[in-house]
Predict the structure.
Amino acid sequence: MGAVRNTTKQGRAAVTTEIALRREKAAQLQQEGNSVRAIAELLGVGRSTVSDDIKAVRTEAKENSIEFRNQWIDLHTERLEEVVRVFYPSMQAGDLQSALILLKVLERQAKLLGLDAPTSTSLNVEAPRAFVKLDSKADEYIKRHLKQANPAEES
């Protein structure tokens, strides 16, 4: 005859608590260096039960870790969005400092959310002199327009 199942709410809660305590003890014993066989003997259960318990503890820890990480990301995303909300109107009005702040915030947010994950690209090309000249002219053009947009920063 098989084991009698306790079908009352109180009985199920007691069994659930007993299993949780056994799993915690099994994980602790494993961290102390005990083998699955030794843990099974100490707890009075089968080796497969110990393996299942340790696996359940690891899965729960992983899920809790993911949940904590997601909560942390949500919190910091909200904070970054608040900074954007505060500085965006100033940036739209032409404030260069606000634009730089927003750029940094958006870069941080992209990094936090994994939107700018690094990619590995390798390319070795010798740039012709015409491109080097064009690049320096582009730099001059950008600097000139930045000075025109914000004349107070001229040195």
Remarks:
- Residues 146 and 152 are 11 Å apart (CA to CA).
- Residues 9-115 form one domain.
- DSSP finds five helices and no strands in the chain.
